[in-house]
Structures are given as C-alpha cells and as structure tokens.
C-alpha cells in the first residue's frame, strides 16, 4: 500500500508542476505584446477601470511580484472579466465546458467501442484481407486532418444525403457527426495499438500453451490476451481522451458546436483575451486531471510501473 | 498529430520489428524511396509554382465565379479544378498553396529540430535540475493539446508567417530532444569525456563530430514524421483563420473559403482537402517506413 | 383552394414542432400550426436599448420591442403609433396627442413624460447614444398633460413626424430606466411594443413573447426567437431544413436554391439606403481627396452587381439613394475608369501606403466577397490594398471609438426617405460617422435640414452632391435588394429599411 501512496504522491507533484508550468506560459504569452491591459479591457474602458486592473495585476510592481499576483489569481480562478460577455471569464468558460465534455466523452466512447474490437479481430486474423483493410482505413484515419474529415462528413452526410444536421447543438442528431469526426483519429490510433498489443501477447508462450491445448482461437484471444492487453490499452486510450479535448477545438468550430474550443476561437476573433487565457488554463487543468487519473489507474493495475 | 506514442507508455509495448527479413526490408526501402520522391515532387511543384500554375492565384475575375471544373469557361480559359467564389483558379491556388505548406512545414521542422536538439543535448550533458526541467516540459507538452497554446500565442502576437513557423516549430521539439538526450547520455561515459577533453575538444565539437552522425538517421525519421504533422497543423490553423491570411493561398484557407459553397461548389474545399490528406498520408507513411528501416527502436518514442 | 382531404392531410402532417407539409408543385400555398416564429440573422444582438445601436441585427428587435410615436408602413405612409394625431400648431411647434391606456411591459402606464424623457435622452451628451443627431432640430419638449406632447423646433421642421418614426424615436420607460440604469435596462429591456423580453443567451438566441395587451392587437404568434447564425451556409441550411422560419442577409448566391426549394422562397425589397465603404478620412492617405476619387474610380460596380449580386441591385450615382427625395436621376452611375484612377493616384503623390478594408463576414450581405473583389480591383490600379476580417463585436467597438484603420462597410439607411435622414444624419457634424468636415457642405446640410422650400433644398443637395463626389467621405458601392429567405407559410412584407415588422398589419403565418 505504501508504494501506491508514494506513487500517487509523485503523480500529484507532477500534476501540480504541470499546472504551474501552464500558468507560467500563459503569463509569459500575455506579456509578449508588452502591456497586457489593452488586451484585457475594452478600448473605451473608463480610466478608473484601467487603474483598477493595473492595481489588481500589480502592473506597476516589478515582474516577479506580478507573477506571484498572477499565480494567486489563477489559484482563485480569477481570470478577469470577459470583454464580450461582461461576466467573469471563468463563469463563461464553465458555461461552455459541459458541451465540450459531452462531445469529448461521446467521441471517446465511440472510439474505444469501435477500435478495440477491430484491433482484436485484426490481430486474431492477422494478414487476412480484413486485417489489411482495417489497418489501411486506420492509417488514413490517423493521418487525415480532423477539420477536413468534418467538412467531408458535412458534405456527404448532411448536405448530399440530408441525413443529419450541418451543425449546432440540440438532440442526439446534432451529436452524431461531430462525435464521429472527433473520434476518427483516436479510433484509428487505438485500433492499431490494440492490434499491436494483442499480437505481442499472442506471441507469448503462455498463449502458445493454451493454443496447444486445443482451445479455439477466439477463446484464446478473448480470455488470455484481453486481460493482459487491457492494461496498456487502457493507458493509451486514457491519454487519447486528453488529445480528444484538443481535437475538439477544430471539430467544434467546423460543426458550430458551442463548446470551450469554439469559445476560444470566437474569443480570439472578438479580442476577448481574458476568456482565451481562461480556456487555455482550464483545458490544461483538465488534461492534468485526466492524466493523473490514468496514471493512477495504471499504477494500480500494474505494480511494475510504480517503481518508475 | 504524429503517430508517436506518448512517453508514459510502458516500454514493453514496443512492437517487435517486423522488417528483419531482407525481402521485406527491400520492399520497405522501395516504399520509403517512393515517399521521398513524392516529397521531392511536391517541393519541386512548390518551387516551380510560378511556371506551373496556369493562372495568377490571386487574380479575381467575377465573370467566372463558382465555375465547375471545365476546359473552357466564360473567360476562354481552362479551369481544370474549377474556380472559387471570386473567380480565382483553384488549380493555381492549389499549386501556390503547396508553397505555403512546404515552406512553413520545412521551416517549422528546422526550428523544432534545432530547439529540440539543443535542449536534448544540454539536458543530456548537464543533467541535474536542467535535465529535470526539460523532461518535465516534454512530458507536459506531449499530453497537452498544443493547438490551444498555439491559438493563445497567435491571439496575442497576431497571425503572421514568422509567428506561425515559431508556434508550429515549437510544437514538435520534444521528439528531437529525447533522441539527442538519449544519445548524449549514452556517450557520457567517463572515458569518453576524458578522452575528448584530453584531445582539447570543445562541447560543440563533441556534439558535431560524435553525436550527430549517430543520431542522423533517427533525426531523419523524426523530421519526416514531424513534417507531416506540421503541414496538417498549418492547414488547421489557416482553416481557423489564425494562419496564413488571405488572399495568399493556403490549403487550409481554401478549405475554409469553400465551406459556404459546399453543396453548390464542392470543388473549392474538396481539392485542397484531398491533396492535404494525400500529403499527410504519404509523408507520415514515409516516416514510418524510414523508421522501420533505419531505427526500429524509435517505435517506442 | 385545395380540397378538403388535402387540407386534412396537411394539418395531420404538421408535427408537434410545427413542421411544414411539403406539397407537390412549386408555388402552392404552405400552411402551418406553429405558434413560434424563429428568425436567424447574421449576427447576435448587441443592444436591446434602442438608443444604443442602429445596427440591423438590433433594430429588427428594437422596433418590435418598442413603439414610436408614428409608424411608417410598407406603403410608405406615416400612421399613428403611440401618437394618435399630430398637428403643426405653430411654425416651429408640433403638438402630438398620445394614445390613452397604453402600458409598458412591466405594467407602468405610458404617458407624455416618457416621451419627453426618451427623446431628450437621445441627445443628452451624458447618455452617449448612437442616435444623438436624429433630433437635433428639437429645441425643447413640453409635456403639458399626460396625453399631450409639444415639440418646439429650432427652425421650421416639416419632417419631425417622420423623424419620430425611426431610429431614436423608440419610446423607453422613464421610471424603469431611471431605476435600473442603462446597463440593466439593456439586459432586461421594457417597452410598449407587441413583443416583450423573455431571455437572451449571448451568441445563441434571444427569446421574446407576444404582449397580450398590445394596443395594436396581439401578433400572430406566441413567441419570437431571434437566433444568431453568422455564417451564410449554415443560416441558409437552417432555412432549407425548416429549422427557422425566416433568415436575413440572404446572399444572392444562395437565392436560387432557396427559391427552388418547394418550401421556401426569397423575398426582398430595394434597400432604402446604400451599401458604402465608409472612410476614416483622418488616416493617411485617405485624407487626400484625389486618393479617394481614385478608389471610387477603381471599382467596377457593374460587375459586382451583375456577378456577386446576380443583378439584384443598382449602381448608385451619389450618396442619395434611389427612392429618396431629391434623388437626381440625371446623374450618371458612379464611373469605373481604372486609367483615370491611376492618374489621380499619381497626381495625389500616392506612394503605396497601405489602405485597409476592415470587413465583417456576413453582417452586411456579401461584405467579405465584395471586400476581396474590390481589393483585387484596387490592386490592379496600383493601390496597396489590404483586407482584414473583423468580428462584429469588434466592429461595434471601433464604431464607438472611431478607430477604423481605413475603410469599413456601412449600410446607411434612409430613415425619412429624404437625404436629411440618410447621409446628413450620419456624416453631419457630431454624427456617428463624423470623420471629415467641409465648411460649405456643413452649411448647406444645416440649411437644407430646416428649409421648407423644396426647390431650395433640391439646389442645396445638388451642390452637396458635387462636394461629395470630390471628397468621398463614403465610397458608395451598391444599392442592393435586401433579400430574406422565408418559409412559404410566412406572410410578410419586407421593409425597405430593415425593420422586420411583425405587427398584425404586416405579419402572419398562413394557417390552414
């Protein structure tokens, strides 16, 4: 038990460091253009507002003091006031977060539910036409740019066939194409990886013995390999969930899905930097949390890892 | 997105090299060569754009707006891939778009390669806290979707060629850093360092003469994979309006402009999209083949 | 009409959401049972406060949320609104009798003090409204009793009733506004109009419901939902799929598709105004009249009308829109002469300074496409032209602090069918587009505003046109047909001035 606690402790530390790093990067980026105040306030803000913000950010103090003030604000969740929405930036971002989670989670589930079986079947029927076809499709899926896939789906499924909406959020119809688009990369990746992992395990003596005993191929695969392959597959797919949230930026834009990613893009167009800052940070926090959870899960499942 | 496996994946997930047999090696080599030729051709097209493109890519001609692919349009010219909403020839814009993609792609790869290699060498040489910092940064960046950071930076600095190259370049330094670091660590035996110092060699000399040749093949593999990723990232940013600004043609920008006409003038978005997909596919596959040939151990990277 | 069985079929087919039955044949009457009107426009609402914005996305709502004293109907005539009658009781005095028994949405009674407070607010410098020059002819306002308002004008102003029908003339509740302040008023507006505010989700939609006690009769639906779909393709798609009942800013490129679709059609009116590139004449080299003349000469408007607008528009000849008083039909359309444009640039000593068009995408129909086309045309005559894309909210900001880098799209509406309510309202001193002044121009504009002698006014506007064509504070580009896409069961006449009138006299759903 003690090594689990140590492992967890190390991971928490890493998570904290990562969050701190992202905050620092955000701090640096905001000051790249010199004075961050014009970015954080509407141009016609009254002087009292300008003074207030300057004081709040400690802009008249030396840089290290500003940095500490900034970190303190971040810890409190204070990213300033959205210029466009006129409410605190954090409130705005949290409003849009659920839509992104809905999209990301759905894409993730779809990816895993489709990819793992395909990977297993491909491995079990190695070098068959099915295997080649599946891996070819996976290759294309992994190298295709997500935004163009989305456009293709809109063109073929929405416009030409009229089956699904072209964008926006509503009932489940609206979720299908965006989730599918977002899931493609992860799906392809996980399918290929699953296949590799299963192949690897199929090579082991343990499995050979089971086969020699005369058990059917499928049974062999199902019982023995899945259990062992589960660990690495879980890890990889868990990390992919993080990547999914990044791909969501593009997918949300293509399908006008009102999530955090689209909010970030719109906020850039609107020159609403407080919100941009906040989205970057919240996304980072989300990743850190997910990575931490995956690491913990992995650590629990595979004791060898805890030594690292 | 490169087909690289994140760092925290267990080492025993490394897939056994499947190219041990000579016949397969030959086949892979031929494929890799084919991929290389593709990149070369693309580069040639990009360089020779002014001569290859049938028309001025920025020439608007309202009389021939939204013309489907045709051999003769109202302006008496052929528009093999059609025209866009301002009457500009899609084929010409496609050809010039290759320029943008390749310039940004190659430049970003160079930037990322230099920064990554430098950081990797420094981390390997100095170890200690510097090493930890660099490696933590690497871990953090691998899991984090760089695109969000990219759009944040571009939001503040504004979209421009240099910003774009910088941002895309910085998104890919990690792979180089890890390879270089591993090499340096491997060479950092006491005898080796003593010998070099005895011979009066400076650190830079050591890097150039002893480290680089050994990592060259790995670097080539990484650079190829990174090129594919950079090209797609540039197109994505241009599609979002944060990359190459109109009227300069870029594949991502063209896809964006064609969105409005998807069901009436599908050719505006489709051609650049297909070319982008093909390029991404071929270049990343070439990287895979090169990896299988040159340095299978990179599969764990 | 159609037979009984078909009618049953139609009503039966109407789903809970109010779907439209598709009938065979192109132009058959469609009907609906819907109680909700959903409109998609090219941008979100920025202000519910009617005095803070004249942008089309806002006025479509504000003219229905509030009433004016007078109201201009599609036939072009002025009708009673909150005022039942009005008379010129002295050369500089207008007396208005107000409608009794009218209540604001919050129950407060409407009276003359609301009128006085509303109108005075428009030109109160502390209020910083966008309509501050609409009523600059008024000297003072009196409210002798709750049902009467008396306007004293500085000089004889025959157009006052017409002025009250438009921007700035929306009557806001004095008591409520004072008690909550302008910021809250903008978030929770209260008026006397046929619809009242329910909710607003920024960048998504605004929901309004029918005012059951509206003096002009309850409108034909229970709710109005204004959605923001800035990109043209999804906006058109939403109409074609039946997700919305009407869309605005329908670009001609998509008009054919909307008409060809059996359930929808395109409907438009010649815009009572112009689409112009407004010029920030304070920015070099746009302070040089020769440069601006060259810019105008460098635009091939004919081809923009013919190709980008599919012929749905006309080339303007000056800053006065066709259909307005004193439109000079004898003036030729603005000329396209690239050679002359180069000459003028040379004469002006133009050294290749950057000239920037800051354009929105979809706020004004075809704005981005026209910007890019014009950029190419200007480049052809040697202008270092650049196009920058702006988000609508940023444009609104730049309007307020006058920080445009060069040129931007403006769609000035002719509010009085008279040049005084069009270019003079905007370009006059202290107006929203005050970037350029000219002594003689200002003198004439002011005189024409207050003259009752139409012959004198005609002469004044003629001279002002000549000055305009020399200095180009605007570069007029087109007077287009402003097109909307509607479901065929919508019976509605578009206003030439973007008001989207849904009161009973102008809007209803065709029901079975």
How much helix is in the residues of chain B? 55-70%
**What shape does the CA trace of chain B take?**
elongated
Helix content range of chain C: 25-40%
Q: What is the CATH T-level topology of the largest domain in chain C?
A: Dipeptide-binding Protein, domain 3
Major sheet of chain B: size, sense and barrel closure?
Answer: none
Radius of gyration of chain B: 22 Å
SSE order of chain B: HHHHHHHHHHH
Number of distinct helices of chain C: 15
Q: pLDDT below 50 for ≥5 consecutive residues: which ranges of chain C?
A: 1-27
Q: Can you name the CATH architecture of the largest domain in chain C? A: Roll
Strand content of chain B: under 5%
Based on secondary structure, the structural category of chain C is alpha+beta
Q: Which structural class do you get from the secondary structure elements of chain B?
A: mainly alpha
- Poorly predicted segments of chain B: 1-19
CATH superfamily of the largest domain in chain C: Dipeptide-binding Protein, Domain 3
Number of domains of chain C: 3
Number of helices of chain B: 11
Q: How would you name the oligomeric state of the polypeptide chains in this document? A: heterotrimer
Question: Termini distance of chain B?
Answer: 14 Å
As a whole number of angstroms, the C-alpha radius of gyration of chain C is 23 Å
